[in-house]
Amino acid sequence: MKEPFITIVSGLPRSGTSMMMQALEAGGIPALTDNIRKQDEDNPKGYYEFEPVKKTKDDPSWVSAARGKVVKMVYSLLYDLPSEYEYRIVFMQRALEEVIASQKKMLQRTGKQGAQVGDEKLTELFKAQLIKFNHWIANQKNFSIISVNYTDMIALPQLQCDRINTFLGGILDTEAASATVDPALYRNRL
Amino acid sequence: MAKIKIDSKLYDRAKKAAQAAGYSSFEEFVTSVIEKEIAQLEASSEGEDAVADQLRGLGYIE
Fold first, then answer.
1. Which of A49, A82, A133, B43 has its CA 20 to 30 A from that of B18?
2. pLDDT bucket at B60, cuts 50 / 70 / 90
3. For residue A12, what pLDDT is reported?
4. Chain A positions in Cβ-Cβ contact with residue B51 (cut-off 8 Å)
5. What Rg do the C-alpha atoms of chain B give, in angstroms?
6. DSSP letters spanning A55-122
7. Which residue numbers of B have CB closer than 8 Å to A's CBs?
8. What ipTM goes with this model?
9. CATH code for A6-186?
10. CB contact under 8 A, A112 and B57
11. Annotated domain spans of chain A
């Protein structure tokens, strides 16, 4: 029997990855999370994070237990994943201006320091990183990827969940997944 | 002054390109190309650092 693949929700921070995690979990894919990072004003429905993903380069032992589950990872950590597993990546896309504005707000609220460059430069840097990432992932035999636009997910969640369900091989309860998207919570949210 | 060896075909192409671009000498052209490449690599490294700072500040990497 073929080993189950690992579903990964990825993207830039503040691109809707937590929203997608919530949808996929509701749609029947168990989420690998530790609930260490609690819900707050920035993510009222929780972060759906799993601390060990940050140490994947040094200790990828958690990956085996992620088969058949969904885990959230920022795009830059995907380079560290071991090659012996199959990964299906649900990659969130959101306008970079919105992403950076939202990141800025989050950094301000938490009192943390981010990059010491202007918004324009940061936009350029993220663009360059995503080009590099897309080039890399296109050449990985054990990765497949679907892009989901943040705005589309809010406006037409059922349609997006149908696309994701096809990508994941029909394992998703699309009605339950799409029902988690609360337009009032996400629309125009930074 | 240091000397380097390059493929003769590449040398011919580079010499033609330097002349077409208006460089006063082949040495000036090579120096300019190397400086630009170094600046790009340094900028790229600074960029990686800046992005890492941003992701770290947001709590997504360590």
1. B43
2. very high
3. 97
4. 76, 115, 122, 125-126, 129
5. 18
6. GTTT-GGGGGGGTTSEEEEEGGGGGGS-TTS-EEEEEEE--HHHHHHHHHHHHHHHT----SS-HHHH
7. 44, 47, 50-55, 57-62
8. 0.89
9. 3.40.50.300
10. yes
11. 6-186
